[in-house]
Amino acid sequence: MATFGTLSDRLTETFRNLRTKGKLTAADVDGTVREIRRALLDADVALQVVKDFTAKVRERALGDEVNKALNPAQQVVQIVNEELIGILGGEQRRLEFAKTPPTVIMLAGLQGSGKTTFAGKLAKQLEKDGHTPLLVAADLQRPNAVNQLQVVAQQAGATIYAPEPGNGVGDPVKVSRDGVEHARRQQHDVVIIDTAGRLGVDAELMKQAADIRKAVDPDEVLFVIDAMIGQDAVNTAKAFQDGVDFTGVVLSKLDGDARGGAALSVASVTGRPIIFASTGEGLDDLEPFHPDRMASRILDLGDILTLIEQAQQAFDEEEAKKVAEKLANEAFTLEDFLDQLQQMKKMGSMKKMLGMLPGMGQMKQQLDDFDEREIDRTEAIIRSMTPGERRNPKVLNGSRRLRIAKGSGMTVTDVNQLVQRFDQAAKMMKTVARGGTPNIPGMGPVPGMGRPGASSKRGKKGKSSGGSRSGNPAKRAAENAGLATAQQGTGSGFGLGGAQQAPSEADLAEIQKLFGKG
């Protein structure tokens, strides 16, 4: 949700300053409201919406509910959250389907707002829910608009009705009317009509959209608006509401870098609910819009419910039980790890999922640096192993690791890193499966993460712990020197064998870097 990143940062910083105060004075409230007003205006939220919003926040923040609260700062955050939910529409509104199929959904909006892509996304989502949508190509004006919808329909696995070639040829009103009749004959229960847009609002656009609406009498008219359009979003929304009217709003391009606050104004200004939010270019990047969850994301409070829903859709419950049993019995292998990676990929972008966790706005740089392709690289390495190697990574000697590295297009260092990370992850997951508390990197010692050459555990019973305990300093130094010489013959730090010598400073730095990356 990069679009609201700046707004989220500003609001989070404002509330962070509030938390240092045990009791809020009128001056504190006024200062907070002033910062909120600036943050909203900088984010392109409509002026009237900002005025109404800040007035309500100030009135409630100075009321008894804050004065009597045990933690006034948290109470103000709660007030801002509730008011933000209000300007985003209040409650979630789902698509309303016709009692007698087909349900007709008409898409309207400016050219370039993302109507055609949204049509494919909506068709794919409806098919997942058991519907049989039909896409109707009624945008006969924009060059290659019909071809684009055909490609999108093919990617979404949806049926398309496109009797006219477009590029200025054909009557969009007739195509829309015939499309609905075709859907009725072919027993499609939903019709999605992709209409033409313009670079700006004009009379011809409004007349054509109004004629199509009159001809097909749609159950839903969805206004698709680019979240990056700026202050003109409000004017465009008002023009479409007056000229065509619409029943719901779709926010597209929420993954963009623009300020996007004007999109927050649409629901408040038009009184029409936001139904969907498009969060990426992929056909799966479409979410039902939840005002409360969006408000939580903007305030960096996380969106755990959406994260859980995505996980439930992607993960197989039976598989999860099998994995839990394997973890408890210490039988978790790289094959199981590969299956888990593939299920994670089904959930979508890792960056988006991590961004739904509370407080992740404070780790923006780490999220930006996260490489989504790391999962693909890991998958390539595991697939280059034999079934026996996946089940028992301990057999991976130097020659096997070299073969795996060549087969996956990676380096031996990458293979070693994966095996080490898998070992650490397996140990932590076994601990969790047994009801224990794992040692997490950065929060406590992790097996194998100590200094090179040192054991993460005490020596086994009956064996030396690895150092002289002589009271004679000269003798102790000589014995330790001999011990170091004996330990040089254990192979390289990457498990590849090779020269029998102690690792150099460069080798140690490389090992630390390798573990740190894990």
Descriptive terms for the model:
signal recognition particle; 53% helix; 23 helices; disordered C terminus; eight-stranded mixed β-sheet; 518 residues; flat; single chain; alpha/beta
Describe the structure.
This protein has 518 residues and is α/β, with parallel strands linked by helices. It is 53% helix and 8% strand. The protein has 23 helices and eight strands. The protein has an eight-stranded mixed β-sheet with strand order 3-2-4-1-5-6-7-8, with helices on both faces. Helix 11 links the parallel strand 6 (248-252) and strand 7. Helix 3 (47-61) runs antiparallel to helix 5, helix 6 packs parallel to helix 7 and helix 18 (374-383) packs across helix 20. It is flat and about 75 Å long. The model is unreliable at 440-465, 482-503 and 514-518 (pLDDT under 50).
